[in-house]
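Entry 14. Ran structure prediction on the chain below.
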Amino acid sequence: MATNITFIGAGNMASAIIGGLIDSGIAPDSITATSPTEDMLRPVSQRFGVNTQTDNNAAICNADVVVLAVKPQIMRDVCEAMQETVLQQRPLIVSIAAGLDAETINQWLGGGHAVVRCMPNTPSLVGYGASGLFANQAVTSEQRDTAAQMMEAVGIVEWVEDEALIDAVIAVSGSAPAYFFLMFEAMEEAAVKLGLPADTARRLAIQTALGAATMAQRSEDTPATLKQNVMSPGGTTERAIQHMEDAELRKTIADAMQACADRAQAMSKELSAG
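Output, structure tokens:
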């Protein structure tokens, strides 16, 4: 792992990664977080004991890795203001900003940089994240390892060799926590109609999802086989699954994920043109 890591931005996702890094054994004094005001930095400083700085250029002057964790809408201004310092230092650039491709980030920073584009998801906040990563051609194998180790501190990592596939990552993991939250919501509402108290229904649905995910993660069987194992001929589960199949749940999910990927592609074009 690189010696010095600077986070440009100190919001929830940056804080999650910082916490994961410290839990994995990275020294707090090797991490710096930046934000425009001390008030915004106080929580991360008090919680993790890392260095803080309101001047981005001062914060990156000794950085081996710079993590860009600001809103996409202000990323261009932030990058261009750091351009001279980044050109001198040539750190690994890791962007966790949604919708901005690696080449856009590279050009806003002056060009010729090693850039890893990362698409994490919100379960990273509790250490169960899933991140898709893409590295441009300037990224060395050592830098790939550094980026992977950093994101593995908050979950699993999957590399894609074609950056266009980041849109698919967004559809299958970046936006997907909301799909499951919708499922919990729908199951709770249905269970209440069946007579269960809402809090009981919610706990049962969430625990069942946790158990099913853990089984799928630990098993060598495919999800299709695991599903079949729960279904007895003529039984309750078979009846429920058949109803979902008849209602074309698979098509609904596929269409939703395509809509998600399409919107991700459109947002990337909009932000890169801004």
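The mean pLDDT is 95. Will compare against last week's run tomorrow.
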